[in-house]
């Protein structure tokens, strides 16, 4: 089984070498490293050139993380594909241990949790939970998938049903869309034992930043609209995500108009505006009650 690691990079030159080296040092017999540089203006491209034929480099104009996922997938040849942000790293042994899980389990995707401690090393025994929430997703439910980009992997057949995805230059439609789509399309596993290091730093585009609060509603709305547009069975989930995003940014008096503007011409049809507005109102009121407001 050949593995492909798709690294997406934009101006993370100071982290890029440790990231790539963490993959190249993996003890697995058949894998490739595909690095997509999304129009970096720092020293990233010089660093990539120094690796020569050890990696496959894809240079492109800046188009955002989703466009990098698309470009990496198009260039990769593996049977199982891993995503990795250029400021993160794989812990020793990750590729072999995830490959073993795919070999012994009938799964389409595998997500491993991350650690923010760079010195961590995984224990001998991994805690693996098989995961099949396809019916929950069809009913509009939200399964818990608390794993960032760098902990995601997929069989090629599954990822080909998800990518290419719609693109945006900002962090709007990215790993949330991929995770929900994967959980809807196939059976998976979650490795509760971290096999990936997630670096928290001042230049994070989303995690741990002040932008997260304002980006979160936009991410919810964009993800909901795209999931409903792409997959008929995710209409209910899509409406719920859109309603949640509207509820976080809109006053009760404006919910109906905002819902109409958001779903107009989209995947739900005109009749969905009232339903989405009511869902948003319930979510907003629920949030207010939980905060002890009236």
From TrEMBL:
PANTHER family listed in its UniProt record: GLYCOSYLTRANSFERASE, SLR1065 PROTEIN
Native source organism of the sequence: Rhizobium indigoferae
Single GO MF annotation: glycosyltransferase activity
Protein name (Swiss-Prot/TrEMBL): Glycosyltransferase family 2 protein
EC annotation from Swiss-Prot or TrEMBL: 2.4.-.-
Top-level taxon of the source organism: Bacteria
Listed InterPro entries: Glyco_trans_2-like, Nucleotide-diphossugar_trans
Keyword tags: Glycosyltransferase, Transferase
Stretches assigned to the Glycosyltransferase 2-like domain: 4-161
Gene3D superfamilies assigned to the protein according to its UniProt record, in alphabetical order: Spore Coat Polysaccharide Biosynthesis Protein SpsA, Chain A
Lineage, uppermost ranks: Bacteria, Pseudomonadati, Pseudomonadota, Alphaproteobacteria, Hyphomicrobiales
């Amino acid at each position: 089984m050949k593995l492909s690691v798709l690294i997406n990079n934009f101006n993370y030159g100071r982290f890029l070498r440790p990231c790539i080296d963490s993959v190249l040092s993996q003890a697995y017999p058949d894998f490739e490293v595909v690095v997509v540089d999304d129009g970096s203006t720092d020293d990233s491209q010089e660093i990539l050139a120094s690796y020569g034929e050890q990696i496959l480099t894809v240079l492109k104009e800046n188009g955002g993380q989703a466009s990098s996922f698309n470009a990496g997938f198009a260039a990769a040849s593996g049977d199982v594909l891993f995503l990795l942000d250029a400021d993160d790293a794989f812990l020793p042994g990750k590729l072999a241990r995830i490959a073993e899980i795919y070999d012994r389990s009938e799964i389409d995707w595998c997500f491993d949790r991350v650690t923010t401690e760079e010195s961590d090393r995984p224990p001998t025994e991994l805690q693996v939970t098989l995961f099949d929430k396809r019916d929950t997703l069809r009913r509009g439910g939200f399964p818990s998938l608390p794993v960032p980009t760098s902990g995601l992997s997929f069989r090629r057949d599954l990822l080909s049903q998800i990518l290419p995805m719609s693109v945006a230059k900002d962090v709007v439609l990215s790993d949330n869309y991929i995770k929900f789509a994967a959980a809807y399309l196939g059976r998976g596993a979650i490795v509760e034992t971290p096999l990936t290091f997630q670096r928290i730093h001042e230049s994070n585009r989303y995690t741990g930043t002040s932008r997260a609060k304002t980006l979160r509603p936009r991410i919810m709305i964009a993800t909901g609209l795209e999931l409903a547009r792409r997959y008929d069975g995710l209409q209910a989930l899509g409406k719920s995500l859109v309603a949640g995003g509207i509820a976080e940014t809109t006053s009760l008096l404006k919910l109906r108009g905002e819902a109409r503007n958001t779903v107009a011409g989209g995947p739900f049809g005109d009749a969905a505006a009232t339903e989405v507005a009511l869902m948003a109102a319930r979510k907003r009121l629920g949030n207010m009650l939980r905060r002890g407001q009236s």
